[in-house]
Amino acid sequence: MTEGIFVRTVRLGVRSLLLHKLRSALTTLGVLFGVSSVVAMLAIGEGASAEAQEQIRRLGSQNVILRSVKPPEDAVSNQETRVISYGITRADLARVEATIPGLRRVVPLRELPEEVRNGDRVSRPRVIATIPAYLEATGRVLGSGRWISEVDEVRTTNVCVLGYEVARQLFPFANPLGERVKIGADYFTVVGTLLPRVRLDSDPAEAGSESTGEVFISLSTGQKWFGEMLVKQRAGSREMEEVQLHEMIIEVDRAEDVPFVAAACRTMLAREHDQRDYEVVVPLELLMRAEETKRIFNIVLGSIAGISLLVGGIGIMNVMLATVTERTREIGIRRALGAKRRHIVVQFLVECVVLSVGGGLLGIALGIAIPLGVEHWADMRTVVTIQAPLLAFGISAGIGVIFGLYPAWRAANMDPVEALRHE
Amino acid sequence: MTRPVAELTNVSRIYRMGQNKVVALDDFSFSFGRGEYWAIMGSSGSGKSTLLNILGCIDRATTGSYRVDGEETSELDDDDLSDLRSRRIGFIFQSYNLIQQLNVLENIQVPLFYQDDPPEDGPERARALAERVGLSGRLDHRPRELSGGQQQRVAIARALINDPAMILADEATGNLDTKTAGEILELFDELHAEGKSILLVTHEPEVGERAQSVLRLRDGRIDTVQEGRQAGA
């Protein structure tokens, strides 16, 4: 009898719950699933958004990327010639460099639809013709050898750098440095290889790029050997495309200038191009949009989880109301023996809170296990923050109190005489 | 006579049933003395249950004054009445009313559970009382593992745990066979001999015979009073 009334009441509540083990267990299920869905969904959502943000950051938050986009077919089908000319031009490049201030560097690149061969081994990577600044602008890391140099650019030397995947594909057992590969109809000497990118999956902007790999040559060399005309073989027909530059990576000096540079590029391109054969990608804007998406995602998830918690709470309330009716007599006895109204309130509240917190703790365990499973089986990234379980725990305790109040109040306000007469 | 243990003055208890008023106690005045053993008798509807509920402070008089051990109850709020029940009154019911999920030792201590500063020696007291009513071998039994007579013994021990001013027994032997009822009544006699005040509601004349005095009710009023017989047989 030395322990406080609170401890005694909690013990009493737990014992009453244990009298009906199955009922108590079923009652906790509502809260269990509610809480586990809160924790799991937050972890999955958090993981997805972390993933998206990392991909966007890899594009460079200080970059503005201009891409050539083939205009829709109907816009070009009435042209007489089968040569389709579109995209960003060298004139655009010059104009950007000349008119927009505050740029650190501008990196143009072309993609050539060529095969790369080493003897019998064939690879179909993105063949990228670009200038030396590309490496720094994209944050790629050299694995061995050297990168394309200014000298290569000026002399249009036939050298290339292989991406990690391509190097492994073409030279599975050998060091590719110094070897020659055939790109299209011409031979190039491999001078360097790149390290693989960290975390490479599911970038929508360059889907599959890593599995097909990348091979780099200098922009001028590409110009010299492959010209501007790209020939694409399609089922039965040939299609000629003329694209001067496929992409232009504009690195802005200061991050806060990115929106202005993006706006300037848009205005300029809109003026110079009579069709929409380009797109302006601003990773910073994507980042902000991703944040916004995440916010909406969280609101939606929160609402769903909130509803399931509400259902769980109503379940607890339902069972407690039944319990109060069932135990009317016990309430009468306790009142007759000196229990105050608040003792009865506390007794039933404690039972509710024990149920909901018990469900909450199990729910947290399940809610942490689900993301682990998702990570393992679905190969998705998840992030369990410390806040999510704490939040869920607080919510479940709150549910016990809120949904327990009415049954407890009902119990406490019974007339002892009536309650004692109850069968 | 010393200060009365329970004193009712002009007490009325009126129930409202829709349009009708039912007068269960009608301007009732009576004093129960300390250490006395009363049987309260009357046919059903005579008001004896209402009187017991008011005496036990689980019901309130509509009008009038009721003092427990000198303390006026009409001014008390619900919490104070609860406190008064747990300290001054020992209840014994017809159907024992033990709490099923608690064992014998715990059931005896329930009234202590709700006191703001429960005594340190609760378990010792409960053990002593269990021995007193002859249940020392069954302290960890649940009520449903006990016979009716044993359950009523637990209830008596529970009623004594706070050394109350008075013991209120409502048809305490009503559910028991004659032999067991006799044992319980003997226990009451012993308690009375020890100086406890006992108010026993019953409709069985042979139970009423055992009490020292008999108060008969009819229609919410005093019918007859037989006082001062020798207790016990």
Mind explaining what this structure looks like?
The complex is a heterodimer of chains A (423) and B (233). Chain A contains 15 helices and 15 strands. Chain A has 423 residues and is of the alpha+beta class. In chain A, the strands form 2 sheets. In chain A, strands 1, 3, 4, 5, 6, 7, 8, 9, 10, 11, 14 and 15 form a 12-stranded mixed β-sheet that branches. A 3-stranded mixed β-sheet of chain A has the order 2-13-12, with no helix packed on it. In chain A, strand 4 and strand 5 form a beta hairpin. In chain A, helix 2 crosses helix 13, helix 2 packs antiparallel against helix 14 and helix 11 runs parallel beside helix 14. With 233 residues, chain B is α/β, with parallel strands linked by helices. Chain B has a single domain, classed as P-loop containing nucleotide triphosphate hydrolases (Rossmann fold), CATH 3.40.50.300. A 6-stranded mixed β-sheet of chain B has the order 6-7-8-3-9-10, with helices on both faces. In chain B, helix 3 packs parallel to helix 5, helix 4 packs across helix 5 and helix 5 packs parallel to helix 6. Chain B is globular and about 50 Å long. Chain B starts with 5 loop residues before the first strand and ends in a 7-residue tail after the last strand. The relative contact order of chain B is 0.19. At the A-B interface, helix 1, helix 12, helix 13 and helix 15 of A face helix 2 and helix 3 of B.
Question: Helix and strand layout, with pairings?
Answer:
The complex is a heterodimer of chains A (423) and B (233).
Chain A: H1 5-19, H2 21-59, E1 63-68, H3 73-76, E2 83-85, H4 90-99, E3 103-112, E4 116-118, E5 121-123, E6 126-130, H5 134-138, E7 142-145, H6 150-155, E8 159-162, H7 164-170, E9 180-183, E10 186-194, H8 209-212, E11 214-218, H9 219-226, E12 229-234, E13 237-242, E14 247-252, H10 258-272, E15 278-281, H11 283-326, H12 328-336, H13 341-378, H14 387-412, H15 416-421
Parallel strand pairs in A: 2-13, 6-11, 8-10
Antiparallel strand pairs in A: 1-14, 1-15, 3-6, 3-14, 4-5, 4-9, 7-10, 8-11, 9-10, 12-13
Helix pairs in contact in A: 1-13, 2-11, 2-13, 2-14, 11-13, 11-14, 13-14
Chain B: E1 6-17, E2 20-32, E3 37-41, H1 48-55, E4 63-68, E5 71-72, H2 78-88, E6 89-92, H3 104-113, H4 122-132, H5 148-160, E7 166-170, H6 178-193, E8 197-201, H7 205-210, E9 213-218, E10 221-226
Parallel strand pairs in B: 3-8, 3-9, 6-7, 7-8
Antiparallel strand pairs in B: 1-2, 1-4, 4-5, 9-10
Helix pairs in contact in B: 3-4, 3-5, 4-5, 5-6
